[in-house]
Amino acid sequence: MADVIILSGSRFNTDNIPRIERSLGPYRIASELQKHGYDAIVIDYIQYMSTEEINRAINKYLTPQTLWVGYSSTFFHLMKNTILTPYEKMYQSNSKDRIDSIYDNIKSNSNAKIVFGGAWALLSHADNKVDYYIAGYGDVSTVDLTHYLAGKKDSLDHFTQKEIDGK
């Protein structure tokens, strides 16, 4: 049971040697949301999990009251020396089938919004399943968005109308 679920990963190396390192961002955002009274959890190291394992982990915390599920793009391997589609720029080493399965699971089991953020959030806005994009330091914007989705705010101070409409 969580108001917010954030998916994150550690760096994936081209030499396939895992590094034990985490992006601070998702934990900073979860901590800030918790200070404002929300239950927020981070599911980390998703690149080492199967799609089924990720969906099971999400479903452990996902309820009809979950406000949003976020995807932190910071520590995923960006494919180099290839021509990338806008979708590949967003999700790097995570395939379209994998992301679609995760997002479809979220949408079919809750009313949660999909939020895409992290270091790569400005590369491309190519996924129409994403409801909100957050670029830069998200500790203020995510609290604002969460208050809005919880009905505690009438408007979003840190978002453009395009971002509010999800288009």
Keywords for this entry:
alpha/beta, 5-stranded parallel beta sheet
Secondary-structure blueprint of this entry?
Blueprint (H helix, E strand, L loop, with lengths): L3 E4 L16 H12 L4 E4 L7 H11 L6 E5 L13 H6 L4 H14 L3 E5 L14 E3 L3 H12 L11 H5 L2
Parallel strand pairs: 1-2, 1-3, 3-4, 4-5
Describe, in plain words, how this protein is organized in 3D:
With 167 residues, this protein is of the alpha/beta class. 36% of the residues lie in helices and 13% in strands. The protein has 6 helices and 5 strands. Strands 2-1-3-4-5 form a 5-stranded parallel β-sheet, sandwiched between helices. α1 (24-35) packs across α5 (138-149) and α2 packs parallel to α4 (96-109). The longest helix is centred in the middle third of the chain and has 14 residues, at 96-109. The two termini are 29 Å apart.
